[in-house]
Amino acid sequence: MDSAPGTLPGGTRERILSLLLHAPAPMSIPALAGQLGISRNATHLHVNSLERDGLVERAAQISTRGRPSQGFQLSASGEALFPRQYALLARKLIAELAHFLGPQALPEALARIGQQIARELAPRGEVAVADIAALMRELGYEAHIAGEEHEIEAHNCVFHDLAMGDPAVCAVDLALLEKLSGRAVEHRRCMARGERSCRFAFGTPQARD
């Protein structure tokens, strides 16, 4: 799974998620129970568990011949469990950018993307290094302050497959961190270079123009 943050749970829970994925409309507990071949009570317990995990959400009630039934559908997190080929598309897009822009201009374009992400994350301006680590975790990085307060270590990279194909992608990370912090950033370790983690050292604050 290229972009899925988790994996599908097994057994009945997986079947419920699959049924909701393929259903043209939200499904009720009785409808799910009929498809699963188990009791309504058991189905309700499984659906409640998936709802607590944020994988299923309530939808509009479903009208039937009797009392209206509560409808359920996949949440965005539930849909994200199923395979998507975002990485494949991203690799093709970067290859096209490299072809049209050239190898020298590509890092500059990727850096602009990193700066744009930074502006969206912190529209009010510069952010402390500790808060940058927290923002990175929100983006999916396993990031923490390492050694001294001016360094961040990430044990994964959300662009790992892309960076392994073209290290120019690292320009996104560096531009993001420099824009967030207002400091020069040194990329001391890099998984794209075969190291076990990425480590970023933040210099002194840059002078404002």
Quick description:
The protein is α+β, with helices and mostly antiparallel strands and 209 residues long. The protein has helices at residues 11-22, 29-36, 40-52, 76-79, 86-101, 105-121, 129-139, 160-165, 170-181, and strands at 27-28, 56-58, 71-74, 143-145, 151-154, 183-189, 198-205.
Please tell me about this protein's structure.
The radius of gyration is 23 Å and the shape is elongated. It contains nine helices and seven strands. It starts with 10 loop residues before the first helix and ends with a strand. By secondary structure, the protein is of the alpha+beta class. A hairpin with an 8-residue loop joins strand 6 and strand 7 (198-205). The protein has two domains: 11-79, Arc Repressor Mutant, subunit A (Orthogonal Bundle), CATH 1.10.10; 86-205, Muramoyl-pentapeptide Carboxypeptidase, domain 2 (2-Layer Sandwich). The chain has helices at 11-22, 29-36, 40-52, 76-79, 86-101, 105-121, 129-139, 160-165, 170-181, and strands spanning 27-28, 56-58, 71-74, 143-145, 151-154, 183-189, 198-205. The strands form two sheets. A four-stranded antiparallel sheet has the order 4-5-7-6, covered by helices on one side. It has a three-stranded antiparallel sheet with strand order 1-3-2. It is 47% helix and 15% strand.
